[in-house]
Design a protein that fits this description.
Blueprint (H helix, E strand, L loop, with lengths): L13 H11 L38 H15 L13 E4 L4 E4 L5 E2 L2 H11 L4 H5 L12 H5 L3 H9 L7 H4 L3 H4 L11 H12 L10 H26 L9 E2 L5 E2 L2 H18 L7 E4 L2 H9 L11 E4 L9 H7 L1 H10 L5 E4 L2 E3 L4 E3 L2 E4 L5 H11 L23 H15 L3 E2 L3 H8 L33 H4 L21 E3 L24 E3 L15 E3 L9 E2 L3 E2 L15 E5 L2 E5 L9 E7 L7 E2 L10 E5 L7 E9 L2 E5 L3 E3 L8 E5 L8 E6 L8 E6 L14 E6 L5 E8 L13 E4 L8 E8 L2 E7 L6 E6 L14 E6 L7 E6 L5 E6 L5 E7 L12 E3 L8 E4 L2 E3 L5 E4 L5 E7 L9 E6 L6 E6 L5 E6 L12 E4 L9 E5 L8 E4 L5 E3 L6 E4 L8 E4 L5 E4 L4 E4 L9 E6 L8 E7 L5 E6 L16 H9 L14
Parallel strand pairs: 13-16
Antiparallel strand pairs: 1-2, 2-3, 4-5, 6-7, 8-11, 9-10, 11-17, 12-17, 13-14, 14-15, 18-19, 19-22, 20-21, 20-23, 23-24, 23-25, 26-57, 27-28, 28-29, 29-30, 31-32, 32-33, 33-34, 35-36, 36-37, 37-38, 39-40, 40-41, 41-42, 43-44, 44-45, 45-46, 47-48, 48-49, 49-50, 51-52, 52-53, 53-54, 55-56, 56-57
């Protein structure tokens, strides 16, 4: 309960605070100025005197002295002064509600800074009843226990600053939550911690010594409060606003709000600091009552009240008061709480393990396996199925949760990570081993040492226990002594799931890995049903990921505050054998000043050893010279800014010692006849581009029916087949596999791409969305039938992905090309958005691929139907009415122009020619066609790229003579002819990473540069194989292009080869996939229509 004009008493409830507000706004007539007991009517209903409170003034404010303190406090802060007496003009402060009020006036809010300053001088709302009992003897004359105080060694470490050197980087974010004005270190309820310390801890007073048993209990409370505060700090730093209520603490118990415990802990450490400030030769003296007002009015620190304690150095200098001590200890709080158990978690500093063979980064691990009580909170929150042995939806609270498998554990970890905005996962084998050994790389046999396990762990000593008798043998968590780190049950009771981060590239006996969890099976620590052997550190067992047993549980680990290494940032890292080592190449998408450290390991669950003394700043490549041989090596990189490392990349594995090669990917499809077309996309969510191959099975333009349909086969980026299925028969694709469009894109935002394709079922054609990992049909809708033009076998059914609303992907299909084409747009659920029927003056405008671009910069994509442009809503934006083009390229072609341009190479004989058009408006900038030059009969091939520094802007290539493609013309940006004829068989490629593009031959064997007249050869042979190259794109490694070729293996089987440049780049540029239009082009190129060249632009 609370007195009028006073603050909040110990244990004040919400109803009591409401009552305080009501009483504070009432006139005080008839109330005596001196302190008195409250009458029954003054108390909150149902509330009596607190047990154990003795004395006449046990529940009363000593009002005259308190008012004097407030008056002195007001003088020191330059604020209000309270008149003597308790008349109607007296102002009174209510700390719980944060206002000053007059009995005869309205409630007036106070300045927060003034309020905090005042309270720090007051030091609490019950100063006299406690301070009058303080031991007035000099500190040296007190008993030793009283000198040390209830915090003992923990407090001495805090005051000495010993802890500050442990993890300074990780603790930096805590300063805003532990400094002055912190939302967690609140000033309300200061009296409650003081009074509780008197009652529970046995702190010195009246010459009494401290009872050791009670001091030990108080120390346990300190640790618990520290854990609660650290948990609150973690959630606050993670961006989660704590809204009060109750919170699960260590062991699954229910506790009060963490803010309340935080304030209590602050007061305890503040108290310890005041009792033993620097200058230990000083003494404690009690100032007389008459002197306290003068000292408080002068702004002296400490408490205001009779018998106030003041620390005086031998020289007579006054030491800082509570306010200064609080500010000085702000960072110390963060250090202590981060290094102690944080809501049950213990920090394990990174270090070596297994005799220095491996290294582990720092992590926090729960000090016990997850209990039924903790797991029940997850089940209640998410509706996840409860373990089958629970009765009426719950199990015994303190037993470890069992009968859960890895998917159950993964769901729990995802829920907890989302709730607390931190990264949670299972520990790795090496992390568990390091934690079990107490955080050191020792040789102890068990987590507790080398002593026999009897009486130290719950295990099967006789070998007679049965899994069916689990109810008799499973014990509550923390039933045995912890190890040196304070971790319980690191051996015995229940197995605990751990990960090894399996290398899927080398994993054998695999059909299809949809989720990496499927290949994790390691368990650690032994159990109540197993013998002594499995209790040993570094010994692991195995259990399938779907197994639910009564002796298998789990405990999570999480990233320490401020740590970056629990999150991966994939960089398309590639490791290739070089002449004298291993060459690494990765993508750049960071700040310009970012450098990179390179790490190497022999296990994927290790942190790796750093190879670079200084960060790599020139380019994004590194050569590891003379690496160890004989076993597989793993590499990854971490960005470095201002000496601080960011998240690591994915691992890239390699078996060193092979012949130097630039082969980054090899895919071997099951092809019996015909060829295949690759389409790239991330199928498994690892942010590496996998590949989907459309297998024509001999169905090509002008082909006969081979009796088998067009098929599709999906592969991971390391060449493992995921699935294969038929798509469309010869009759339904008009005798041409190009009329079976296949596009790869993530439609639902889960990080895994779907395969969107035309699909024939029961003789009917559908637009279908297939699961990228399994090939199963997720959704389908009837494909719009072709209106006319059924006789040709030419390519005229296409597909693309566009962001029509600027936010979510849509599917755009085209049926028909040479006449009466129909374009449809669908959302990710295959609901039709719009349809455009090109049946009038725009009929026959379509191209051999649908091009997507945001031409007006509003974030919404427009759709090119060849020489006609459609708005995001399907309406026509403009058309040049020149019918069917074979080449469409939308780029910043003209130098100095803010607008984008479109280059058209038109096939239709009436309008055959080259056109440059302003993309936003459709205005023709220049043209040369059959009307200008009769040699233009069919523009069939071409591209746009910057291949020569001697011509500003980009250059454009096309031909006049159709499929023969001998009369090639190269144009400058202003329409000037730079070369005619241009040499045949060359296409642009960004192979060396220079300012202009090189040219590569169709077979990929020759590399050249245009010098203004001819193509000059350049040293290098990108294609190491024996086939042709159909596409260039930035797929892996740095920003330069890879070469995508088809050929045969040494065994004569057809295969897809992807080659990269193994020479380190001279500079670094942003990865091409940062551009959305570039990613959309990769997703549709060749699979959604004819292939093309995409000149990347920043």
């Amino acid at each position: 309960m609370a007195a009028r004009g006073g603050g909040e008493a110990v244990g004040t409830s919400g109803r009591a605070r409401t009552w305080i507000a009501h009483r504070a706004s009432q006139p005080r007539g008839g109330v005596r100025a001196r302190g008195r007991r409250f009458e029954k009517s003054d108390r909150e209903p149902g509330e009596g005197r607190r047990p154990g409170r003795q004395g006449r003034h046990a529940s009363v404010r000593a009002r005259p002295v308190v008012r004097a303190c407030r008056r002195a406090r007001g003088e020191a802060a330059g604020g209000l002064r309270a008149p003597r007496g308790g008349g109607s003009g007296a102002r009174r402060y209510d700390g719980a509600l944060g206002f000053h009020a007059r009995a005869d006036g309205p409630v007036r809010p106070r300045d927060r800074a003034t309020e905090e300053s005042s309270l720090s001088r007051l030091g609490g709302r019950r100063p006299l009843q406690r301070l009058r009992r303080l031991d007035r003897r000099p500190l040296a004359a007190r008993p030793r226990a009283a000198r040390q105080g209830r915090l003992g060694r923990r407090a001495r470490r805090l005051r000495s600053g010993e802890h500050l050197s442990r993890e300074p980087r990780d603790l930096a974010p805590l300063s805003r939550w532990t400094g002055a004005g912190s939302p967690l270190l609140d000033r309300r309820g200061a009296a409650r911690g003081e009074e509780r310390r008197r009652r529970e801890g046995g702190v010195e007073g009246s010459g009494r010594t401290v009872d050791r048993r009670r001091r030990g209990a108080a120390s346990n409370r300190f640790e618990r409060r520290g854990a609660l505060l650290a948990g609150a700090l973690a959630r606050a730093v993670g961006g989660r606003e704590e809204s009060g209520g109750r919170l699960s603490g260590a062991g699954g118990g229910r506790v009060d709000r963490p803010q309340r415990h935080a304030r209590g802990l602050l007061r305890e450490v503040r108290r310890a600091a005041i009792e033993d400030r620097p200058g230990r030769g000083g003494a404690v003296r009690a100032r007389p009552r008459a002197a306290r007002h003068e000292a408080a009015g002068a702004g002296a620190g400490g408490f205001c009240g009779r018998g106030e304690v003041e620390r005086v150095s031998p020289g007579g200098a006054h030491h800082p008061g509570v306010r200064e001590v609080k500010a000085a200890l702000a960072l110390a709080f963060g250090a202590v709480f981060a290094l102690q158990a944080q809501d049950g978690f213990v920090l394990v500093k990174g270090g070596a393990v297994r005799g220095g063979a491996h290294r582990v980064d720092a992590f926090e691990i729960l000090d016990h396996p997850v209990t039924n009580a903790e797991y029940k909170e997850f089940v209640d929150s998410t509706g996840h199925p409860a373990p089958p042995h629970w009765i009426r939806g719950k199990g015994e609270d303190q037993l470890p949760v069992t009968f859960v498998n890895r998917w159950d554990a993964a769901a729990y970890l995802r829920w907890r990570g989302a709730k607390e905005q931190r990264v949670y996962r299972l520990p790795t084998q090496l992390e568990f081993e390091l934690a079990a050994r107490g955080g050191v790389d020792g040789r102890a046999k068990y987590p507790w040492g080398d002593e026999p396990p009897a009486g130290r762990a719950n295990f099967d000593e006789t070998g007679t226990r049965s899994l069916g008798a689990w109810r008799r043998h499973v014990q509550p968590v923390k039933s045995y002594q912890p190890n040196a780190l304070g971790l319980y049950d690191m051996a015995g009771n229940v197995w605990q799931m751990v990960d090894v981060n399996t290398d899927l590239e080398t994993n054998r006996f695999v059909y299809r890995v949809v989720d990496p969890i499927e290949r994790e099976s390691s368990i650690a620590g032994g159990s109540w049903a197993r013998g002594e052997y499995y209790l040993r550190c570094g010994v692991f067992g195995g259990a399938g990921p779907g197994i639910r047993h009564p002796d298998i549980g789990f405990r999570p680990v999480r990233a320490p505050l401020g740590a970056q290494h629990f999150r991966e940032i994939p960089r398309a890292l590639v490791a290739l054998p070089a002449a004298n080592g291993v060459l690494l190449s990765w993508q750049f998408f960071d700040r310009p000043e970012t450098g990179y450290h390179v790490y190497r390991a022999t296990r994927r669950d290790a942190a790796g050893d750093r190879l670079t003394r200084e960060p790599v700043r020139q380019g994004t490549a590194y050569l590891d010279e003379n690496p160890p041989r004989g076993r597989r090596l793993y590499y990854r990189v971490r960005g470095v800014v201002d000496g601080v490392e960011g998240p690591p990349s994915e691992w890239a594995g390699i078996d060193p010692g092979g012949a130097a090669t630039g082969l980054a990917m090899k895919i071997e499809p099951s092809v019996e006849r015909g060829g295949f077309t690759p389409v790239f996309g991330d199928l498994n969510g690892d942010q590496r581009l996998d590949v989907v191959l459309r297998l024509d099975n001999g169905i090509r333009e002008m082909s006969r029916d081979p009796g088998v349909p067009v098929e599709v086969e999906a592969f991971t980026h390391y060449g493992r087949s995921l699935w294969r299925r038929p798509l469309v028969s010869h009759a339904r694709c008009y005798g041409n596999a190009n009329n079976v469009p296949v596009v790869v894109w993530d439609l639902d935002g889960d990080g895994k791409s779907e395969v969107i394709a035309s699909l024939e079922e029961a003789g009917r054609l559908y637009l279908a969305i297939l699961d990228g990992m399994t090939g199963e049909v997720r959704r389908k809708t009837p494909w719009t039938p072709m209106a006319t033009d059924f006789a040709k076998s030419s390519t005229r059914i296409h597909m693309a992905i566009a962001y029509l609303n600027g936010r979510t992907p849509a599917i755009v299909t085209q049926t028909g090309l040479y006449e009466n084409e129909i374009l449809d747009a669908y959302d990710a659920d295959l609901k039709k958005i719009w349809q455009f029927r090109s049946e009038a003056e725009t009929s026959g405008s379509g191209s051999h691929h649908i091009d997507i671009a945001d031409v007006d910069g509003d974030g919404r994509d427009e759709v090119f139907n060849g020489t006609t442009l459609l708005n995001y809503d399907g309406s026509m934006r403009w058309s040049i009415y020149r019918m069917h083009p074979d080449i469409v390229a939308i780029k910043h072609i003209v130098p100095g122009s803010k607008e984008r341009q479109v280059f058209f190479a038109v096939e239709t004989s009436t309008h055959a020619g080259a056109y440059l058009v302003e993309a936003r408006t459709g205005r023709v900038l220049w043209k040369v066609n059959r009307e200008d030059d009769p040699r233009w009969t069919h523009a069939h091939t071409g591209w746009v790229a910057d291949i020569w520094e001697g011509s500003p802007g980009m250059e454009m290539l096309t031909n006049r003579d159709g499929h023969e493609a001998k009369d090639l013309v190269l144009f400058a940006a202003d329409g000037t002819v730079l070369a005619n004829p241009f040499p045949q068989g060359w296409r642009p490629v960004n192979w060396t990473g220079g300012a202009t593009r090189e040219l590569i031959s169709a077979d990929g064997k020759r590399l050249g540069r245009f010098d203004g007249k001819n193509v000059v050869p350049v040293l290098g042979m990108p294609n190491e194989g024996n086939g042709a190259c159909s596409m260039v794109a930035d797929l892996v490694g740095d920003y330069r292009d890879e070469l995508i070729c088809t050929g045969t293996t040494a065994q004569g089987r057809p295969a897809l080869f992807v080659y990269t440049n193994t020479a380190p780049p001279a500079r670094r540029e942003m990865r091409r996939q940062e551009n959305r239009e570039y990613r959309l082009w990769i997703a549709r190129n060749q699979g959604g229509g004819y292939g093309s060249y995409f000149e990347w632009e920043p």
